[in-house]
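Incident log entry.

Two folding requests arrived from the same account within the same minute. Monitoring flagged them as a possible duplicate submission, but the sequences differ. Recording both here for audit purposes.

Request one:
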Amino acid sequence: MDDRSKLFDLNKKQKTRLLGLGLKKEPMENQHTADSEKSDLLLDLLATSLPVDPAQVSVLPDILIPLCQELTSVAGEPLGKLLFDSNTDVSTFKKIKDYAKDFGTSTSLKSDILRDVALTIYYAAIAGALVFHDSKITKNSYKELVRSFESLCKQEWISKDLMRLFENARQSCSKNYDEEGE
C-alpha cells in the first residue's frame, strides 16, 4: 500500500480528501444517475412495440399462446417510431397511452424511475394525438396539459425529439385553452 501511495505522491491530507470524495454521496450525482437510468429506460421502451392485445391472444389455440411473447417484438412498429409519425392514427395513440398508463400503475411497479418513464410515454401519446390530429385523448383539461407538457420540457433526461413534441403539444393546448377558456 505504501508503494501505491508514493506512486501518486499524495500527502495524508490529500489522501483523506480523495477518500472522502469517493465515499461521499452527492445529491447531484445521485440525480445524474437517476436521470441516466430514466433516459436509458425511456430509450429501451421506445424501441419496443406495443404488446399483443390479450383479447387476440385468448382466441389462439393453446399451443400458439407461448409464441406470442416471442412474436411481440416483430408484431409492430417501435413505440418511438409511432409517437413521432404523423401517419399514426388516433386509436394507436390511445393504445400507447393506455399501455403506458397500465405500465405506470402496475401494482408491481415500485420504482419512481419506471413511473416517470411510463408517464413520459403516456404524455407523449397524448402529445402525438394533439400535434398530428388535433385530437385530445384524455380527460385532462388543456390547462392541466399545458402544465404537464411544461414540466416534461424541463426534464434533462428526455430526448430533444420528445421535448419538441411536448413543446408543440403545449402550444396547441395553450391555443385551445385560450380559444375555449377551458
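Request two (distinct sequence, not a duplicate):
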Amino acid sequence: MAWGYGPSVIHRDGCDYWRTWFLQECEHEGLFGLTIGHLPLVRTKGVGVIPYHAGTLVYLEDAPYFHATEKKRHRVVGPYEVVTAGQLPEDANVVHHDHGRPIVWHEPHPEQGPWLNRSNVKRTIDGVVITFRQMAGTFGYFPYRFRIKRAPGWKSTTYEHYVGCWLCA
C-alpha cells in the first residue's frame, strides 16, 4: 500500500520501504533524511501504524539501480533499525521523540550535507555501472533526520519489476 506520497515510500507488512538516491550517504552517515511532507509518516499513529521509535525497522530501495536496469529490477536493502539520535547538532530542534529520547530532528544547516547536489555520481552494483545525478537541494536537503543502523538479518535483495509491482504501488 502506498502512503499517498507516490513511490518514495511504501508501507508493507508493518515496515516502510523508502526509495532513495542517497543510499551510500545514508549508510556512511547512519542517517535518513525526510522532507516536511514525509514527516507525518514517522510521527502519526493509525490502524496498523505506530510512530517511529527506537527499534522500528525500515528498508531502503536503491533508486538509481532501478533506473539503471531500465526499470526492470528493484534493489532493496535492510532492514535498518531506527536508533535514538544521541548527540544532536547545535541548534537542532527535536520534532519527534520516543519516551523523551530524540528520534527525529530538524537539522539547522541541512545544506552542509551529507545529501548534496552532485552530477555524474558513479557506482557499480551487481555488475551494473550506474551514473546519476543527486538533487538534494530540490528537497531542501532533507532537513528532518533520524538515525539508522543495520539490523540483524540485513541483506540486499533484488526484485523483478512487473505490472502492479508492490514497490511501485
